[in-house]
Design a protein that fits this description.
- This protein is an alpha/beta fold.
- The chain has one domain: Alpha-Beta Barrel (TIM Barrel), CATH 3.20.20.70.
- It is 42% helix and 17% strand.
- It has 12 helices and 10 strands.
- The chain has an 8-stranded parallel barrel, surrounded by 7 helices. Strands 1-2 form a two-stranded antiparallel ribbon.
- The chain starts with a strand and ends in a 7-residue tail after the last helix.
Amino acid sequence: MWNIGSVSIKNRIAAAPLAGISNPVYRSMCHAYGAGLVVSEMISDKALHYENKKTKEMCATVPDEHPCALQLFGSDPVTMAEASAYLTEHTDCDIIDINMGCPVTKVIKAHSGSWLLQHPDIAYDVVKAVKDNTNRPVTVKMRAGWDMQHINCAEFAVLMQEAGADAIAVHGRTKSQMYNGTSNNEYIRMVKEAVTVPVIGNGDIHTVEDARRMFEETGCDAVMIGRDCWADRTSCSSSAAQWKAKSLRNRRMKNVWTWCLTMPRSSARIRGNMSACA
């Protein structure tokens, strides 16, 4: 058991946010397979400002996915404050997360995601605005830096903590790497040594051995599994159970049948709970 602010989390395995994938069905299944924390796909502050119906529907949560974080993206402190207040008033999310790591071009052009790594003063104002408009813990998901010549993760994380962030999730790649190359645990270690809030390590966790290595090399408080959790829902349960048991066997089990059988039931249940974001 560990905490992000006032939120208790049963284990040290989190399911990372995946655009177009991390909806309530997927998040509920990740919890069922052992994730201690789940995070939604990105929710636009501007879309909430303009009361976009589809974006409001993305804010829905269901009872069996807690604790869960809803992730906002944006760089305007005013509309990020509005979005924070909206999630606080209209949803029962446990945590509000801010995306400062997405490297996708359209997100960068919108001055969001990894763009903020080059603009720490604006990032500070964004975190403070979100924190000042909610009673929920606030977290930041970021990357190591813009490129290999601009690794600023440690100082950036310190600034986010000063702005009010209750935890920091760090992907060990730079923005310029996109999803290529390898994730560097050293950058996660640098952040862990620089801040006092919990640090969640992310990047290239394909096996239980990878999770063990990240814990040992970085001292991080938890690990976050992304694309491998989508490919194999048992990644969370095997990492949680085997890490606790010190069993380090690699596992890459597929659960297509379970996924197919569970999806219709979960989708139907969630449609009945969409009033959570009305």
